[in-house]
Specification:
Blueprint (H helix, E strand, L loop, with lengths): L4 H9 L11 H11 L14 H11 L11 E5 L3 H10 L5 H4 L2 E8 L1 H8 L10 H24 L3 E5 L6 H7 L6 E10 L13 H4 L10 H20 L6 H8 L8 H7 L6
């Protein structure tokens, strides 16, 4: 974990940063905690207290919400037999079974539709934007939960792979129509610190007035070099270029049945 904000961001993005003069020490420390974020996959044995979990979920659900529709829910997977199902769902990710806490973040379009159903009114917004609204609300709550957990000294690992088995997960959690599992989340106290991993250069993702990716190949090559250097230093082994690894990962079809599942749950993709 880095202790200097400018140095931390330099390691992330491969360019120098100036310390903003207007930031107080407290503000700098808060931004450093954000900049230091990294997913963890090993946990200490320390349990998370119930009062802390209540505070964390309340903070998570304080996230911005589209039109104040509040279309995100959190499900704590606590029952031992149900937890074991998730533990066995993805054998390649043993950190799920090891994590003290496992939660599922859901997009919930059900409550909004209920407002209309109880008044015998038709819901006239049954189209793709309704799916986006609920899903984005869920994504914001997921990030808020991660940020809240990290402020409390915990670490996390999001698990999007549960959508590979969305039908199965939906059945386990008894998700009704218009509720979707967006991601799982492992939470616990860290076993050891981790340094943040590099990101694409800022000018690849931050644009002025218009989208511009004319330098994309140069930016990707620069990032590959930093990625390989960082990974090799971390593991002591030769590393694969990020571009090669991601192209390989997505050369296999992923979640081709997701659209069918979403429609089965009652959402329109039109």
């Amino acid at each position: 974990m880095q202790t200097d904000l400018a140095h931390c961001l330099q390691l992330r993005f491969g360019r120098s940063f100036e310390q903003p003069a207007e930031l107080s020490p407290e503000q700098t420390a808060a931004l450093l905690r954000i900049a230091n974020h990294t997913s963890h996959r090993t946990w200490s044995d320390q349990a998370i207290s119930e009062p802390l979990l209540q505070v964390l979920t309340a903070c998570a659900l304080s996230a911005p919400s589209k039109s104040f529709l509040q279309q995100a829910d959190l499900i704590r997977v606590r029952r031992s037999d149900l937890r074991e199902k998730f533990n066995q769902l993805i054998p390649s990710m043993p950190w799920i079974a090891d994590a003290p806490e496992f939660w599922v973040v859901c997009a919930n379009g059900r409550r909004l539709r209920h407002l209309f159903a109880r008044q015998d009114q038709a819901f006239v917004n049954e189209h793709l934007d309704a799916l986006f609204n609920a899903s984005i609300d869920a994504g914001l709550v997921l990030m808020n939960l991660i940020r809240a957990a990290e402020e409390a000294g915990l670490v996390c690992c999001p698990i999007s792979v549960i959508r590979d088995q969305a039908e199965l997960v939906s059945g386990w959690l008894e998700l009704p129509q218009h509720v979707l599992p967006v991601a799982g989340l492992c939470m616990g106290y860290p076993q050891s610190p981790r340094n943040p991993v590099p990101r694409l250069p800022l000018d690849a993702s931050v644009h002025q007035d218009r989208f511009d990716d004319q330098r994309i190949d140069q930016q990707l090559a620069e990032f590959d070099n930093r990625w390989i250097e960082a990974q090799s230093a971390s593991t002591g082994k030769p590393a694969t270029a990020w571009t090669v690894d991601k192209q390989k990962q997505y050369s296999k079809t992923q979640r081709p049945d997701w659209g069918a599942f979403v429609r089965k749950q009652g959402f329109s993709t039109d």
